[in-house]
Amino acid sequence: xxxxxxxxxxxxxxxxxxxxxxxxxxxxxxxxxxxxxxxxxxxxxxxxxxxxxxxxxxxxxxxxxxxxxxxxxxxxxxxxxxxxxxxxxxxxxxxxxxxxxxxxxxxxxxxxxxxxxxxxxxxxxxxxxxxxxxxxxxxxxxxxxxxxxxxxxxxxxxxxxxxxxxxxxxxxxxxxxxxxxxxxxxxxxxxxxxxxxxxxxxxxxxxxxxxxxxxxxxxxxxxxxxxxxxxxxxxxxxxxxxxxxxxxxxxxxxxxxxxxxxxxxxxxxxxxx
Length: 273
Description:
Blueprint: H1 8-14, H2 34-47, H3 61-73, H4 76-91, E1 98-107, E2 122-123, E3 131-139, E4 145-152, H5 161-166, E5 182-185, H6 192-200, E6 204-207, H7 227-236, H8 240-243, H9 250-271
Parallel strand pairs: 1-5, 5-6
Antiparallel strand pairs: 1-3, 2-3, 3-4
Helix pairs in contact: 2-3, 3-9, 4-9
């Protein structure tokens, strides 16, 4: 199977979500199969091409784009992320004991919107004030994506902790108070309010302190676990539609993020099968 096509396993998982969009009335031209349309969306996600340059084998670009926007508005891609997370939890199991969170900036050379903050676009302080977005990610001990949030590039990471936790695709299992999961954060989160926020969400915070010298590996009381979230960002940015944001609407870019996370989950299952 070529790289621009979704796997049979992924299609079997998400196909029931699209049944509600099947044509109810007869007549007209024969509709394009939903799997073909989803393959077209995946092609755009993987290659980062413009809608106008989608190969004709996926149907007209207007048809694929129309279905993408309809599914994105209905939250279908968020449901795909949830289904992928539920399947991963059932077959492999998330390692909830240690989790990591961080943000990553992406360029967003899109047309300007009247409400940039709503669309998750802001002036990137690390790119001469050009428009950009921030992906904020929560992962488990193995770097498996658990939750994702979208904001403008000018929003500080410390402001996105609650939004990302609430954006989890799967709720963490209930545990005893003395067995609270650990959340690893870098020094950008070194604030008292963030520590209180993390505690209120039921985590034990592990925050790198500003000015703290990096310890030698042999001196650490527990293995460093922040790096796994950076690896997950590398997985996501392997999709060129994620690496640079070309979509104007925040709901559309977040839909691509959810689809990418769902595909990562499915691939991790297949890789360890």
